[in-house]
Amino acid sequence: MGIRKNLKKLNLLAIALVSLYLVIGVPKPAYAMHVMEGFLPVGWAAFWWVVSAPFIILGFVSLTRITKEKPQLKLLLGLAGAFAFVLSALKIPSVTGSCSHPTGTGLGAVLFGPLSMSVLGTLVLLFQALLLAHGGLTTLGANAFSMAIAGPFAAFWIYQLTMKISGKQRLAIFLAAALANLLTYIITSGQLALAFPAEVGGVMASFAKFAGIFAITQIPLAISEGLLTVLVWNWLQSYNPQELELLNLIKREHQNETIKSV
C-alpha cells in the first residue's frame, strides 16, 4: 500500500516537472500575452495592483493553513499550479497588447478554493513575465485580477451551484473551467476598455470591440479547456482518490475493499 501511495506522488511530481520543461525548455517565439508590459497607463496599472493585493494576502493565509493542516496535499498544489502555468502559456495573439489562451485556474479553484488559486495564479503570471516575456510586472496586478482572482472565484461558485442543482460532478467541473476562462477575458476586455475608451461611444463601445475580438478565439478555447479539465479530474479520481477525499470532493470509495481485506 505504501509503495502504491509513493508511486501516485511520483506521478504527480513527474507531470508537474514535464509540464514545466515543455513550457520553459522548448524554445518559443514571444508574443504580447495577457496584458503586456507597459501597455496600461500608470494609474490603471497601480489601481489593479491595489485591488488585487488583499486577495493575494488572504490567499497566502489560506495556502499556509492548507499546507500545515494537510501537508500531503503539497504535490497536488504543485500540480494545480503547473496545470495553470502550461495552459496559460499556450497563446494565440488576439487584441493588440493582449492575447487569447486557456487559463487553467478552474481546476485549482475547485480543489483548493479561489483564495489559494489567487496566489498560485499570481505566481504563474510572475514566472511567465520573468521567464517567457509573457505579460509584465507593471501589469501583473491587472492580469492577476482577471486570471487569478475573478476567474477562480467564478469557477468555485459555478462548481458549487452546479453541484447543488444537478449533482453531476463532471458537468460542474466542465462549466467551472470553461466559464471561468470566459469571465477572465470579459474582465480583461473591461480593463482594456477602461484604460482605452473609444472616442465615439466611450468605455462601452471599446468594451464591445475588445470582447468581440476575444470571443472569436476564446469561446472554442474555453470549451476545450473545460473538456481537458474534466480529463485531468478523471485521472485524479482514478490515481489519487485519497487527496480528493481529504478535500471532501469525493466520498470514500474504498471502504468496501478495506472491509473485504479484513
TrEMBL record:
Gene: cbiM_1
Gene Ontology cellular-component terms listed: ATP-binding cassette (ABC) transporter complex
InterPro entries xrefs: CbiM, CbiM/NikMN
UniProt family annotation: Belongs to the CbiM family.
Gene3D superfamilies assigned to the protein according to its UniProt record, in alphabetical order: 1.10.1760.20
Pathway linked to the protein: Cofactor biosynthesis; adenosylcobalamin biosynthesis
Organism: Calothrix parasitica NIES-267
A GO BP annotation: cobalamin biosynthetic process
Pfam family, one: CbiM
Subunit structure: Forms an energy-coupling factor (ECF) transporter complex composed of an ATP-binding protein (A component, CbiO), a transmembrane protein (T component, CbiQ) and 2 possible substrate-capture proteins (S components, CbiM and CbiN) of unknown stoichimetry.
NCBIfam families assigned to the protein according to its UniProt record, in alphabetical order: cbiM, PRK08319.1
Superkingdom of origin organism: Bacteria
Membrane topology according to the record: Multi-pass membrane protein
Transmembrane segments: 42-63, 75-92, 112-133, 140-159, 171-198, 210-236
Role: Part of the energy-coupling factor (ECF) transporter complex CbiMNOQ involved in cobalt import.
Protein's UniProt name: Cobalt transport protein CbiM
Listed GO MF terms: cobalt ion transmembrane transporter activity
Localisation per UniProt entry: Cell inner membrane; Cell membrane
Keyword annotations of the record: Cell membrane, Cobalamin biosynthesis, Cobalt, Cobalt transport, Ion transport, Membrane, Transmembrane, Transmembrane helix, Transport
